[in-house]
Amino acid sequence: MSENLQETALPIKPEIRPRTPDEILAHGDAMVRFTLAIIIGLAIATLTFGGIFVWFKDPQYSRELWVIIGPIISGAIQGAIGFLAGQHHRASRKKHR
User: Fold this and answer.
1) Could you say which of 12, 47, 84, 89 has the lowest number of CB atoms within 10 Å?
2) E strand or H helix at 43
3) Could you tell me which of 78, 60, 80, 58 has the C-alpha nearest to residue 70?
4) SS3 label, residue 16
């Protein structure tokens, strides 16, 4: 019975799965960067489109709204850039060891 199970099992292709700890770390770093870009992009898009919608609906109130969401958008962009710069610095330090 175990012979049949081994014959029908799908083989794991060695080129698909990471082999070394460095490859696993690189894969994890890439997933973190991708997830960060998606989350920050969705947050900025939501705030921007919300602000544009309010601007068309009530221009007087939109000035007050943009005073609030403008710094949030710029902070999100600066935080993402700072995080990615730190990731890049960490990766370059590890190569020189």
Assistant:
1) 12
2) helix 21-57
3) 78
4) coil
User: What are the DSSP calls for 46-79, one per residue?
Assistant: HHHHHHHHHHHH-HHHHHHHHHHHHHHHHHHHHH
Residue 85: both structure tokens together:
């710069």
Contacts of 94 by beta carbon, 8 Å cutoff, 6+ apart:
none
Taking the model in full, what pTM does it have?
Answer: 0.63
Quick: pLDDT tens for 34-73. Answer: 888 899 999 999 999 999 999 999 888 888 888 999 999 9
CA dihedral 32, 34, 39, 41 (to 10 degrees): 140
The Cα–Cα gap between 63 and 55 comes to 8
Pair of tokens at residue 3? 């012979």
